[in-house]
Design goal:
Elements: H1 4-19, H2 23-39, H3 41-57, H4 62-68, H5 72-87, E1 95-100, E2 106-113, E3 116-121, H6 126-137, E4 141-145, H7 151-167, E5 175-177, H8 183-190, E6 198-202, H9 205-214, E7 227-231, H10 237-249, E8 258-264, H11 268-280, E9 285-288, H12 290-293, E10 300-301, E11 315-321, H13 324-334, E12 339-343, H14 347-356, E13 361-364, E14 384-385, E15 393-394, E16 401-408
Parallel strand pairs: 3-4, 3-6, 4-5, 7-8, 7-12, 8-11, 9-10, 9-11, 12-13
Antiparallel strand pairs: 1-2, 2-16, 14-15
Helix pairs in contact: 2-5, 2-7, 3-7, 5-6, 10-11
GO molecular function, one term: glutamate-5-semialdehyde dehydrogenase activity
Catalytic activity: L-glutamate 5-semialdehyde + phosphate + NADP(+) = L-glutamyl 5-phosphate + NADPH + H(+)
Keywords: Amino-acid biosynthesis, Cytoplasm, NADP, Oxidoreductase, Proline biosynthesis
Length: 415
């Protein structure tokens, strides 16, 4: 069993060193990490193949294997996102604002690292490099605990990042890997209050639920994506088809994919057959309510569980609604506060949707698949927060900082 207390002690030491590291040195090391990833592409692919072979043996679905799979293109993207992080402004040391109070004290609010971040995550090896690079740039040490399905990939990636640090005579303890994937070790990490400043879980609903129930370390909840697209009666239907197909089929195994389609009753009779044809061509199965079934040939009848399901697969729930009010009410009752979209030419409908739908990202006439830290210009993301305290939405560098007040005086005492 991994000695998490030892990892915690090492991380605390590494965090102190990293918090004082100049921006240029951090950026240079990140660029070196990216080059190390690129140089070792073959070794990474070999490690990833071991994970894929085990996934096949364990009968993991193809869509879930897609989350796990690395290709030369994906490895290149991982390295490029590290480079993007290096190119971003460093938030550490920035003073948000300063003011002088009635006592003549000059008070400022300064950005500082969170300290030591713990990560518990599943499947996707790119999370390893995203989290490590963002934590490093924002001055935080990170302890990474990936899932057993990506063990070989994650282990090698961390070894390569640590090798880069050691070659530069920098502490490798700023980026550490938990090489025990047992639930017992994960549970211990959730309670590592003496060493972790925050714990970020990233994965499916069961993982998030377990962490919320068991953790004594403060957590930032990154959510599952039960995301909706509502097609308003004033939508451009050709645009709607393109958005739905993209949101559902471009990569159904990720959290920003669409899971439920809501359609206004006035356009349902002629829109549903066309969207069914487009989705069936991509292998999508439809679970529809009784009203929608009248206009669909291949769908099966949905039940109440469908409205709350993150499929992460080529399945889409379909429901007819009679108004924007009904669509908003349905979304706010069933969504996971991740990403929601409306397709409409009505300014009034779009503004009501933006204002009344409760989610981290709300779209007008665009696919939910854009909810991504890299797409938003953050270089990468450590997760997409669906909670409302401290951070919400894709979490980049600023979300991995906190603040301290700095106060300058010239001898003031409080009377």
């Amino acid at each position: 069993m991994t000695d998490l207390i030892q990892l915690g002690k090492q991380a605390k030491k590494g965090a102190r060193e990293l918090a004082l590291m100049p921006t240029k040195q951090k950026n240079d090391l990140l660029l070196q990490m990216a080059q190390t990833i690129k140089r070792n592409q073959l070794a990474i692919l070999e490690a990833n193949q071991k994970d894929l072979d085990q996934a096949t043996e364990n009968n993991i679905s193809e869509t879930m294997q897609d989350r796990l799979r690395l290709t030369p293109e994906r490895i290149h993207t991982m390295a490029e996102e590290i480079i993007k992080v290096a190119q971003l402004d460093d938030p550490i040391g920035k003073v948000d604002h300063m003011w002088q109070n009635e006592d003549g004290l000059l008070i400022g609010k300064k950005r500082v690292p969170l300290g030591v971040i713990g990560m518990i995550y599943e499947s996707r090896p790119n999370v390893t490099t995203d989290a490590a690079s963002l934590a490093f740039k924002s001055g935080n040490a990170v302890i990474l605990r990936g899932g057993k399905e990506a063990f070989h990939s994650n282990q090698l990636l961390v070894e390569l990042l640590q090798e880069t640090l050691e070659n530069a005579e920098v502490s490798p303890y700023t980026i550490q890997f938990v090489d025990d994937t047992s639930h017992e070790t994960a549970a211990e990490l959730m309670r590592l209050t003496d060493y972790l400043d925050v714990l970020i879980p990233r994965g499916g609903a069961s993982l998030i639920k377990r962490v919320k129930e068991q953790a004594t370390v403060p957590i930032i909840e990154t959510g599952t994506g039960n995301n909706h697209i509502y097609i308003d009666k004033e939508a451009q239907l050709a645009m709607a088809v393109d958005i739905i197909v993209n949101a559902k089929t471009s990569r159904p195994s990720v959290c920003n994919a669409a899971e439920t389609l809501l359609i206004h009753s006035e356009i349902a009779p002629f829109f549903l057959p066309s969207i069914e044809q487009a989705l069936v061509e991509h292998g999508v199965s439809l679970h529809a309510d009784a009203r929608a079934l009248d206009y669909l040939e291949t769908a099966t009848l949905a039940d109440e569980t469908d409205w709350d399901t993150e499929y992460l697969d080529y399945i889409l729930a379909v429901k007819i609604v009679d108004s924007l009010d009904e669509a908003i009410e349905h979304i706010n009752r069933h969504n996971t506060q991740h990403s929601e979209a409306i397709v409409t030419d009505s300014y009034t409908a779009s503004q009501r949707f933006l204002n009344e739908v409760d989610a981290a990202a709300v779209y007008v006439n665009a696919s939910t698949r854009f909810t991504d830290g890299s797409v938003f210009g953050f270089g990468a993301e450590i997760g997409i927060s669906t909670q409302k305290l401290h951070a919400r939405g894709p979490m980049g560098l600023n979300e991995l900082t906190t603040t301290k007040y700095i106060i300058y005086g010239d001898g003031q005492i409080r009377k």
